[in-house]
Amino acid sequence: MVKVTFVQPDGSEETIDAAPGQSMMEAAQASGIRGIVADCGGNCSCGTCRVFVAPEWRARTGTASELELDMLEMHEERQDGERLCCQITLADDLTGVRVAVPKSQF
Amino acid sequence: MQTLAQLNLPHLAVEDAAFAADPVSHFREARKTNPWIAASDIGYWVHDYQAIRDLLSQDDKFRPAYDGIVEIMGARGTPWGRFTEEQLISLPPEQHAALRTTFARKFTPRFANQLRPMMRETITRMLDEWAPRERFDFEEFAANFPITIMFTLVGAPVEEIPGIRSSLETLGLAFSMDKSRIPEIHEGYERLERLVQRIIAERRASPDKGTRGDLLDLLIETGDEGNVPERQLQDLVIFFFVAGYDTSKNVLTYTLRLLLDRPDLYERCARDHEYCRKVLDESLRLFNPGSVPRFTDQDVVYRDVLIPKDTMIWFTLNISGRDETAFEDADTFDPDREIDPATRPIPFSLGKHMCLGQHIARAQLQEALHQIAQRLHDPQLAGEYGWRPYPGAWGLKGLPIAFTPTDKTPEPA
Ligand code: HEM
Ligand code: FES
C-alpha cells in the first residue's frame, strides 16, 4: 500500500492507503478527499484535481507533461509544486507523499 | 430492489413549449413523486444534482446516445445521420480516446488564453457595428459572436457566415425531436459539410498551408501526424461548429438576461475583467443549454433501482444547478457565492466526454461580456422573449434590448 497525506487549506490532514498503480486522483476520490473535484475523471482536461506537492517529494512525483502544464494555466495564481493529481501514478516509492489541496479548483 | 418499470414515475411533457418556458418548476413538481428520476416519451430524465454526478461520471456504464436520437428522428443512413453517429462524441471508446488525445493540446487553457486578443478584437468589431443601433435583439447579436470566432479560427470566408448561421440554427433544433424539421436539417447539414470540406481542401492545396498557425493549420498538421482519416478530420471541424454555436450563444444571452435585473453587477462587469468570470460561472450554474443523452451499457443499479441495459437516459445538466437539495438559495443569482467543491456546477458535463471546448468557451464568453458591458450602457428589456425547445440546445429565443451606446473607454492599465 502507498500512504498519501492530503493537507486541507485549514491545515487538517488525512492519510489514506492506496494501491500502487492507481492515480493519486483515483485514490483521493475512493477515499472521499474533499477538494479533489476531478470532473473529467482523469483525462487531463478539466484541471479540477490540482494539488501542491511538498518540496521534498517533487523529484519522485516527477514533472508535469506539456499537456498538464497547458491545463494548469487555467488557474490565476500559479504555485511551485502544482500538479494535476490524475497525472501522478502511485508507486511504492511514493509512500509517505504529502500534497496540499487548494482552497478552490478554479 | 425495483426495476425502473416498476416505479411510479412522473411523466414529463419535455417537448411542450410550456415545459421549455419553465422546466425548473416541472422538475421540482416531479420530485414530489420521485426525487431523482422521471419518465417521458423520449426516455428517462435524471434531474437530481447528486444522481447526475454519481451516474454520469461512470463512463464504463453509459455510452452517449446520439445514435438513439438519429433513430427517433428516423434519419439512419442520411448524411446528417451518419455524421451524428460518427462524430467524436459517438465514436467507440478506443477511437474516441485516440482522437481526443490527438487534439487535446489544441483545447487547453493555454491555447484559449492565446486566442483572447482575437476574441477581444472580434467582439469590439461587432460592437462598433451594432452599438449605434441603440436597440436590437441581443440573441441575434450574440449568435454572430461564436460563429465569427469559429470562422476566424479556421480561416473560413466571412461572407458565408449568414448561410452557415442558418444551418447551425437548424442543426441546433435537431435534438428537439420534431420530425417535421428533418428536410431542413439535411439541407443545413449539407451546407455546413460542403463548407468544411472546401476549406480543408483549399488549405491543403494552398501555398501558405501550415504558415498561418490558426486552428485549421494545427488540426490538419496534428491530424496528419496522428494518421487521422480525412473524413474524421472533416467531422471534427463540423462538430466544432455545431458544438460551439448555440451553446455559447445561449449562455451569453441568458447571462445578459440575468444582468438586466442587476445593473449594479452589470456595471461591475464593465470595470472588472476577473469579475466577469465569476458572473459567468454563476450564470452557468443557473442556466446552461445541455441535457445529455446516454444509453446504459450494462444493467445499472442506483438507489436500489435496476436500470436495464440499453435504457435511454437524459441527464439534465441545464437545471442541475437549481437543485435545492444541493444549492442554498438555488434561484438567487450571486456571483460572489462560494463554490463548494462537493457541488461544483457541471455545465460542461462530466467524465471523458466533458466539453473539449470549455476553455475556449469560457475565454470567449468572458472577453465578450467585459466588452459588451463597456459599450452597451444601461440595457433594458425592450420586448418579449420566448424559449427554445427543452431537449437539445435549450435557451432564450430572442432578447430585445434597448441601451445607450458608449464610446469605448480605454481600459485601465
Ligand atoms: C458555453 C458553451 C458550451 C457549453 C455549455 C458546452 C457544453 C458541452 C457539453 C455539456 C458537452 C458534453 C456532451 C455530452 O456529454 O454528451 C460538450 C461536449 C463537447 N463540446 Fe462543448 N460546450 C460549449 C462550447 C463548446 C465549444 C466552443 C466547442 C468547440 C470549440 C465545444 C466542443 C465540444 C466537443 C468537441 C465536445 C465533445 C467532447 C467529447 O465527446 O469528447 N463546446 N460540450
Ligand atoms: S481529473 Fe480532470 S484534469 Fe485531472
Topology:
The complex is a heterodimer of chains A (106) and B (413).
Chain A: E1 2-7, E2 13-18, H1 24-30, E3 50-53, H2 58-61, H3 66-72, E4 82-84, E5 97-100
Parallel strand pairs in A: 1-5
Antiparallel strand pairs in A: 1-2, 3-4, 3-5
Chain B: E1 2-3, E2 11-12, H1 17-21, H2 23-31, E3 37-40, E4 43-46, H3 49-56, E5 62-64, H4 66-72, H5 79-86, H6 93-103, H7 109-114, H8 116-130, E6 135-137, H9 138-154, H10 161-172, H11 182-205, H12 215-225, H13 230-260, H14 263-271, H15 273-286, E7 292-296, E8 300-302, E9 305-307, E10 312-315, H16 317-320, H17 358-375, E11 376-381, E12 386-387, E13 396-397, E14 400-405
Parallel strand pairs in B: 1-9, 2-3, 4-10
Antiparallel strand pairs in B: 3-4, 5-7, 6-14, 7-10, 8-9, 11-14, 12-13
Helix pairs in contact in B: 8-9, 8-17, 9-13, 10-11, 10-13, 11-13, 13-15, 13-17, 14-15, 14-17, 15-17
The structure holds protoporphyrin IX containing FE (HEM) and FE2/S2 (inorganic) cluster (FES).
Structure description:
- The complex is a heterodimer of chains A (106) and B (413).
- Chain A is of the alpha+beta class.
- Chain A is built from 3 helices and 5 strands; from the N terminus they run ββαβααββ.
- Chain A has a 5-stranded mixed sheet with strand order 2-1-5-3-4.
- Chain A has a single domain, classed as Ubiquitin-like (UB roll) (Roll).
- With 413 residues, chain B is of the alpha+beta class.
- Chain B has one domain: Cytochrome P450 (Cytochrome p450, Orthogonal Bundle), CATH 1.10.630.10.
- Chain B is 51% helix and 12% strand.
- A 6-stranded mixed sheet of chain B has the order 2-3-4-10-7-5, sandwiched between helices. Chain B has a 3-stranded mixed sheet with strand order 1-9-8, with no helix packed on it.
- In chain B, β3 (37-40) and β4 form a beta hairpin.
- The longest helix of chain B has 31 residues, at 230-260.
- The N and C termini of chain B lie far apart (63 Å).
- The mean pLDDT of chain B is 95.
- Classes of the chains: A alpha+beta (106), B alpha+beta (413).
- Chain A: This is 2Fe-2S ferredoxin.
- Chain A: Residues 2-105 form the 2Fe-2S ferredoxin-type domain.
- Chain A: One of its GO terms (molecular function) is electron transfer activity.
